[in-house]
Amino acid sequence: MVKSVEGVYRNGKVELIEPLTEAEGSRVIVTWVQPAASIDLRERGIDESQAADLRRRLAPFAEDWDRPEMAAYDELPPR
């Protein structure tokens, strides 16, 4: 069985966000996810309130964007 859970690495240990009591003593694989770089909103011509409004309006699409098959679009060259 494979199950993914989120956690935080601190002081040489991984602290899981949700407990995995059924996995006690099991082997695990840890994948490090590099934090996203900050975005310069001014460079994109918007301020923080406009960015918040944009996030709110685009939120309904997030589930579709996060589907694994959508990763194919990440490989397209920029226009």
Question: What features would you describe in this structure?
Answer:
The protein is of the alpha+beta class and 79 residues long. Helices cover 19% and strands 10% of the residues. It contains 2 helices and 2 strands. The protein has a two-stranded antiparallel ribbon. It is elongated and about 50 Å long. It starts with 6 loop residues before the first strand and ends in a 14-residue tail after the last helix.
What is the strand and helix layout of this fold?
Elements (H helix, E strand, L loop, with lengths): L6 E4 L2 E4 L31 H11 L3 H4 L14
Antiparallel strand pairs: 1-2
Give a short summary of the structure.
This protein is α+β, with helices and mostly antiparallel strands and 79 residues long. It has two helices and two strands, in the order ββαα.
Instruction: Give the helix proportion (percent range).
Output: 10-25%
Give the CA-CA distance, first to last residue: 41 Å
How would you describe the shape?
elongated
Largest sheet: 2 strands, antiparallel
Radius of gyration, taken over Cα atoms and rounded to an integer in Å:
18 Å
Total strands: the figure is 2
Strand content: 5-15%
Overall average pLDDT = 87
Query: How do the helices and strands follow one another from N- to C-terminus?
Result: EEHH
Number of helices: 2
The secondary-structure class comes to: alpha+beta
List unreliable stretches of 5+ residues: none
**Strand order across the largest sheet:** 1-2
